[in-house]
Design goal:
Blueprint (H helix, E strand, L loop, with lengths): L1 E2 L8 E2 L2 H9 L4 E7 L5 E6 L2 E4 L2 E5 L4 H9 L1 E9 L10 E11 L6 H9 L8 E10 L3
Parallel strand pairs: 1-9, 2-8
Antiparallel strand pairs: 3-4, 3-7, 5-6, 6-9, 7-8, 8-9
Length: 139
């Protein structure tokens, strides 16, 4: 996993440890962007969790986002914690953009899936495990 600095330095960027702590407190929302089979974009809002500093977990029903993830194996996430009353513009949003890849139950990621799943107490068929490939700044 790589992390880059913000281009504008106008927003507060979170690293993996900060993202995990924020998600544990349900402070923010996450927009998940995938690509439909016809090439059009798909975006959905979910509440994520991080079982460790390298993975993100969502509970997804059978929907476009899940189908796109299973088909392409990748997605882009934007995690945002809005603080609209902050006086300083840089403090009004905290978060990060993440490039993620699907961790599958079978094949070459099966061992990784089992390791992450065994540490997540709410495992069920709706769980999707994503590996964080890169953390990017919000601004």
């Amino acid at each position: 996993m790589t992390q880059t600095d913000t281009a504008t330095h106008k927003f507060t960027d979170m690293n993996a440890v900060e993202l995990r702590a924020s998600m544990a407190q349900f402070e923010g929302l996450c927009v998940v962007a995938t690509v439909n089979p016809d090439g059009t974009p798909d975006a959905a809002i979910f509440v994520p969790t991080m079982p460790d500093d390298e993975h993100v977990i969502f509970m997804l029903a059978d929907n476009h986002t899940r189908a796109n993830l299973e088909r392409t194996g990748t997605a882009h996430l934007v995690y945002d914690v809005a603080r609209p009353h902050a006086e300083d513009k840089a403090a009004r949003h905290a978060g990060a953009r993440l490039d993620v890849s699907l961790v599958r139950q079978d094949g070459e990621t099966a061992e990784e899936y089992e390791r992450v799943a065994s540490s997540f107490p709410r495992m069920n068929p709706a769980v999707v495990i994503l590996r964080i490939e890169r953390i990017l700044p919000v601004g």
